[in-house]
Specification:
The chain is of the alpha/beta class and about 170 residues long. It has helices at about 10-30, 55-60, 65-80, 95-105, 145-170, and strands spanning about 40-45, 45-55, 85-90, 110-115, 140. The chain has five helices and five strands; from the N terminus they run H-E-E-H-H-E-H-E-E-H. The protein is globular and about 65 Å long.
Length: about 170
Amino acid sequence: MTEKKMPSCEEQRKIDEKYMREALRQAKKAYDLDETPIGCVIVHGGKIIGRGYNRRNTDKNPLAHAEITAIRKASRKLGDWRLEECTMYVTLEPCQMCAGAIVQSRLTRVVTGCMNPKAGCAGSILNLLDMKEFNHQVQLETGILREECSALMSGFFKELRMKKRNKNYD
């Protein structure tokens, strides 16, 4: 029986950056739809098994968050609601709904790009991922490609404010 070699901190950082770039690609799909640019991928065994991006306005659905879509696809791919030994990469810290879904789906690890001080429930407002009262806790890594993730968000909202201002002047 061979023992699985754990990656070094530097190797893990490179892996995390690789998959966060994939999450950023998903976020850009949301951006192109004039949606808040949040993207997500779920990885199992070195392969992406679920992808998602924000589509709340497009789908007229408050549940159409990047994380929920990715969880649904990953569960379908694995044929199980339990996403044990899976890592989620998401460009923005999850909200309370998504953090709850992450705990419920038994994800092992979540990697975020930038934090969300107004609605984040993986450390900003509270951390639903690490509440000992729940039957499952999730490892959390924050700040992977923080600058890129943050720039995408702030650029989107800057454009949105400019569009609203220009519309008011028409």
